[in-house]
Amino acid sequence: MMILSGDPPRSRLLSALLIVIVVALLATPFVFPGAKAMNAAANICIFAALVASYDLLLGYTGTVSFAHTMFYGIGSYAIAIALYSLGPSWAAVAAGVLAGLPLAMLLALAIGLFSLRVAAIFFAMITLAVASAFQVLASQLSWLTGGEDGRSFQLPELLHPGTVLIGKSAFGFEINGRTLTYYLVFAVSAAMILGLLRVVNSPFGRVLQAIRENRFRAEALGYRTVFHLTYANCIAAMVAACAGMLNALWLRYAGPDTTLSFSIMLNILLMVVIGGMGTIYGAIIGAAIFLLAQNYLQALMGAASRAAADVGLPLLPGLLHPDRWLLWLGLLFIASVYFFPTGVVGRLRGKPRTAP
Amino acid sequence: MTDVSASGALPKPKRDVLPALLPVALALLTIPLVGSTSSWVTLTAASLAMGMMIFIMASGLTLVFGLMDVLNFGHGAFIAVGAYVATLVLLPLAGWVQADSLLANLAVLVPAVLLAMAVSGALGLVVERVLILPVYGQHLKQILMTTGGLIVAEQALYALWGPEIIPLPLPTSLRGSFVIGDAAIAKFRVLAMLIGLAVFAGIQLVLNRTKIGLLIRAGVENGEMVEALGYHIRRLFLGVFMVGSGLAGLGGVMWALYREQVHASMGDDLTVLVFIVVIIGGLGSIGGCFIGALLVAMVANYGGFLVPKLALVSNILLMVAVLMWRPRGLYAVTSR
């Protein structure tokens, strides 16, 4: 209870689902040691943390930011540039962290102070503009960021895939640097999600919800809403930057397509809405559903598309083409905003406690 | 009681010309910086044309927001749909497009543009009814719904037309440029300027000289009052939304011809530009939108010529500067 900050899932099915996901993620290196499954699992961890930080903004304060990938990208690039230029050492990782986190925070502070005073809609537009400018900047400053190609780099010795820590003879499976990296990703992501759970269930989190429900009234009660919103924005930005760092460590690469693109922003939105806004747990569910769909639904769609093409139906092969999976998730997204705005988690929890 | 109606006319509304002078000042300021007059003329023509195209796309968005407090994040989808629909006419009739006669070019261009506007307008009808009507007055859900619409529309375009970039050659008679002295001005840019000015004049005429325009302006000021007087503001809004979507389609066709290619992601890129314009102009203001579009285009063109590195973030700098000066945009229309 302590570790969940007094905010348990409150639904037997949801608890079961969460336990299954967490256990599956923990066991992935042993049960499904293939590269594809490991990638999917690491992505679920990273995105669960990233989406949870976005949920802090969207679900708990009701502000829509389109600049979340920017912070994600800052974290990724900080690690990538540090390890690329300083060589594979832990000191370089530390330098990346020490440079990336404050940068993300300061930028979030600037954006927040500049545009959080006004309506949510204004903030959404301004963050969209800033994020797109940042993306262009990252792909143009090629001396620093490697441009469109991004930066590939080496990890410290301990995290190398080739570093065998415990040989196959001991347990029947090998624990190597890759496994260690995976558990690093898992542990940091889990810590961040639990930390966010702590934040939203603190008095500070309650104020955020009050601002979401009625900003004017919260202000009248004496809360400095701009301060609270900016604070939340900074926390979310730092968590996003951390998630970006994990992503860079896992991929050993940072580039505009994997960290900054607008489509990742849309993916985050899809995950948080499908999982359930304003719940934090929704982030885990949403990320798991979305990334499993991304990795495994496509194969299914490919088969369906071929079947439709064989039968000779018009249009359907195009609509079911594996690359068009976002079309169906987009429809699901609209339907879930409309029919169950609290997402999967809200649905499972039953009574609508929070309707954003 | 004193007789107030006697001789004194109604006090004229205060005219705020300062923002309108901004683009002129910017243009004049850059003359010495650019150096040669001919390249300045070319740059100015380029920025005017680009500004007009952006204005056409942004005008619908700003009106829709002003009237109904609805911000359509899927506006870019209409732009892309317009461009794609135009290819339906332009590509099969490529022979007429390539023909070296203005008449043949127009005979294919005009139906293409009209069809594009009609289809994106009709799509606007569907989007308004299906996506926006259920979430009137809820900003958060509006943003989410219309963003979802953008995703679906973009993917549907890919599904129907394939993910490749479609090349779209400019009609022959619009190629080349007019040469005045040393300065060359591309013909298409002149056309874009003319169309943009026509759209601006048309919108201003409708807004200021017709009853519908009066109702729209009244609706922007105070929608409830207009409803109380017995007008169907929802229907009015639907009309404005459809016209706005149609204009976005028109802008999409022009942009596609300008770039000579069509791709579904053009909606995403232009959405950002259009948003910056709408913010700079002040949400809901047509005049502000016009000036904002010119400013954005000028900063992009002059900036790209003078300091290429700065051009990447010039739009953001412009937005920050304008919002520092007037936090609600150049012309703040709504009280929101």
Summarize the structure.
The complex is a heterodimer of chains A (356) and B (336). With 356 residues, chain A is mostly helical.
Topology record:
The complex is a heterodimer of chains A (356) and B (336).
Chain A (H helix, E strand, L loop, with lengths): L11 H20 L3 H27 L6 H19 L3 H26 L4 H21 L1 H4 L5 E2 L11 E3 L1 H4 L3 E2 H24 L2 H11 L1 H6 L4 H27 L1 E2 L1 H4 L2 H14 L5 H31 L4 H4 L5 H15 L3 H7 L7
Antiparallel strand pairs in A: 1-4, 2-3
Chain B lengths: L17 H17 L2 H32 L6 H16 L3 H5 L3 H31 L6 H23 L4 E2 L9 E4 L2 E4 H23 L1 H11 L1 H6 L4 H27 L1 E2 L3 H16 L4 H21 L7 H12 L11
Antiparallel strand pairs in B: 1-4, 2-3
Structure notes:
The complex is a heterodimer of chains A (356) and B (336). Chain A is built from 17 helices and four strands. With 356 residues, chain A is an all-alpha fold. In chain A, helix 2 runs parallel beside helix 8, helix 3 crosses helix 11 and helix 8 packs antiparallel against helix 11. With 336 residues, chain B is mainly alpha-helical. Chain B is built from 13 helices and four strands. In chain B, helix 3 packs antiparallel against helix 5. Chain B is globular and about 60 Å long. Chains A and B meet through helix 5, helix 13 and helix 16 of A and helix 6, helix 11 and helix 13 of B.
